[in-house]
Amino acid sequence: MSRAGRRAEWDSPVRSARFVDANREQALERIGIVTVGDLVTHWPFRYLDLTTTLPLSRVKQGDEVTVTGVVRRVQKKQPRPRLNIVEVAITDDTGSLLGVWFNQPYMADRFLEGERVAFAGKVELDFGMHRMTAPFVEKLGAPGAPQEPGRVLPVHRSTEGLTINWLRRLVAAATDDYADVPDFLPVKTRLARDLMSLRAAIRSMHFPSSLVEARTARRRLAYEELLCLQLGLLMRHHSSRDGRPGHVHRTDGAALRALCDVVPFDLTGDQSVAVRDILDDLASPRPMNRLLLGDVGTGKTVVAAHALAAVADSGTQAAMMAPTEVLAVQYAEKVGPLLDDMGVSWRLLTGSTLAAERSDILHEVESGGVAVLFGTHALIEGGVTFAKLTLAVVDEQHRFGVQQRLALRRKGEAVDMLVMTATPIPRSLALTRFGDLDTSYLRECPHSSAASRSTTRLVDRHHRGDAYDAVRAAVERGRQAYVVCPLVDESDAIQARSALKEAERLTSEVFSDLSVGVLTGKMKSAERLDVMRRFRSGELDVLVSTTVIEVGVDVPNATVMIIEDAERFGLAQLHQLRGRVGRGEYPGEVYLFADPKTDVGRARMEAIVGSRDGFALAEEDLRLRGPGQLLGVAQHGLPELGVASLIDDAELLECARCDAAGMLAADPGLERAEHRPLWREVRSRFAGADGWMESG
Ligand code: ADP
Ligand code: MG
Fold first, then answer.
1. 65, 79, 296, 689: which has the fewest Cβ within 10 Å?
2. What DSSP string runs through 350-415?
3. Which atom of ligand 1 is nearest to the CA of 300?
4. pLDDT tens digit string along 369-378?
5. Is the C-alpha dihedral spanning 444, 445, 450, 451 positive or negative?
6. How many whole angstroms from 296 Cα to the centroid of ligand 1?
7. Based on the domain organization, do 414 and 512 belong to the same domain?
8. In this structure, are 30 and 109 located in the same domain?
9. What's the pLDDT tens digit per position in 665-687?
10. Is residue 434 part of a domain?
């Protein structure tokens, strides 16, 4: 965590702190403590609450508790050649408890009979005796030392060569000497949110007198992190607008009215709200920077179509970019006819567009003869010049890099951006990862009846036959099926090979009477499109595929999906995959081939079987796997969160978001006297993280 600029002394080498000699300096460096500030902000990772320790006679099996007692007996046992057990019995006036360590014989030497210790851990019951396996140990006093009154002991992460007690002493000294720093949070904010001052929070975080006090301190420190993050993101967002006003679009034109007539269904409530949000953005001179988050099948495309119509009505141009050719072609096939009916001109440009056609298209786009251009990465190539591009829509945005999105945006001036994703990102993560974007959510699914009758089953290796039977039964009813091959981390090539092999196996051994096709990311695009066309037309019964189908493919007649090695996928990704079936009038059947070996693995499989709510699943994945894994990317470009947690502090994050927006509305550059210290803090925190100038 960068603390530069808060206070000069915090930047001085940790060696200058009290009690830090050369040896301790080295040990501290091993745990990343280099400056005085690092030491002051080396927060405890847990507390031992000795103010409320239970008498030993009152502990119960399953309790997670801290207990204290006097060491009565230390015993080493070796019931089997490879098994060492150390047992340490402690007692108080009411009873006794055993601490047990397996294969850590040195633990026997850590205890002295007669000394007072605290054990923290989970209480187990073993042959009528309460015990804890490898509890956390805190020494409370040498034999005969007077018993101290109850207190809360912080536990800081330490390292070899530096005992917890010594580290605690170093932190205490540093806190005494250096924690007296001015608070960069405006007093008004602190009062409004009922937050401790910085200096009080530092002290209470390290040495609280109760767990409640520690929580209050933590709340303050988490809030300041989240506030700085939101301020940084929002300021970055504003600076990306570059001061240039965006195009003011017409939102009451003929094409938009016509769209309402040609769309064959009513919009869901969420879709209507999102359309409203987007049209408001388009009508305003403030360039749009909006993220449309909607689970698979919630109908993002038709929402985007409204934006395209408004652009056509305004006499300017829109580009809509998809990460794959299959998807770009799908726009052309689904949205194109609507645009035709509305009298809006459009073209499709991809990597496989023939040269002659391509030069026609480029000419029309440059002369302004085309209002809407669909396509793939081909859109951001050098040769593509727009007469007046005012809207860029990027679908499945997580498949594109920041640079690619920027490249599309740079095809015009102050272009309105609409990015769409089906990755159901929890709001807390969206606010931190994409905090510089406005968001619209689609939660309802228009086909909820078919989707809600869809099923997901977990299948172990012995019951694969059931899933194959289900495929066959579906095909007999005229439906189709997907078989999704395992993710292979190493390379696309390996994944593609395994898909080919699986297709061969299925063709020769399982579905010899059905027509089976293969789709991999390694295939030439013409070949890929041909396979998709044959699957869509019903010529293929079964499509064996790598995860390329995750993205946006819409074949309502496909009702069964088998996913191999399901535990290797993220929940969000599994959810997206299974959203490919049960899209039409028929419910989907999803079979997850999985053999989870860990508790987390099992919990994740249970979650996906038990829930159809993509956002709930994303929250669950966030909880089980942590934020880094969920998106499959590090949160690059953003300062790290040291105290705040996206899982536990979702509400605090909303407060910080709201406060940051309020401050910037009143004082966009944070230039007022009461905001200046905060601005310095934000700048220093973002200084360590790259990408301050980049815009999502
Ligand atoms: P996604 O959000 O996954 O991109 P799509 O835009 O591909 O979803 O829409 C999925 C399907 O739902 C499409 O066939 C689309 O025509 C249909 N659809 C979209 N909105 C509605 C609605 N309000 N009522 C009925 N069907 C809809
Ligand atoms: Mg889509």
1. 79
2. -TTS-HHHHHHHHHHHHHT--SEEEESGGGGSTT---SSEEEEEESSGGGS-HHHHHHHHTTSSS-
3. 2
4. 999 999 999 9
5. negative
6. 9
7. no
8. no
9. 999 999 999 999 999 999 888 77
10. no
